[in-house]
Description:
By secondary structure, the chain is mainly beta. 0% of the residues lie in helices and 52% in strands.
Amino acid sequence: MEESHILRINEFSLEKHEGEYENWPTTSKLFKHGDYVGQEIAGYYIERQYLLDDGHYFFIISYDCPFEEQCDLLLLDKNYHQIAKRRLMPRYYSSWNFNNEQYLGSNKFLLTFNKNYVIKVTLTPNKIFAWRRISWRHKT
């Protein structure tokens, strides 16, 4: 089996919203090199973005607010359509403040949140069911 590779990129940005945070829409326009790509995605800030060797994109998205401490993991196809999403929601006084990542090869990552909570994420963009395209588990 051939090894897959991922390239960390910095090509995309999300629309900036004006006014009070409570009044912001739930989605933001997606831009590539400053040009609107015709898609909107949930969230307000791209923490990390990657290009997979098959042309798919992987984003770690946050809501960039101390009271909305959640992250979304998104897979987009070559035309920037969302093909999978995993929402990491806070539970009981916890949060998903993203700290860093480590690429393990073969479309696998270790993602660190809150400085000590690590999850292992596996990307399989060609799975039939969308919910199986991004899988994760707590790394003990």
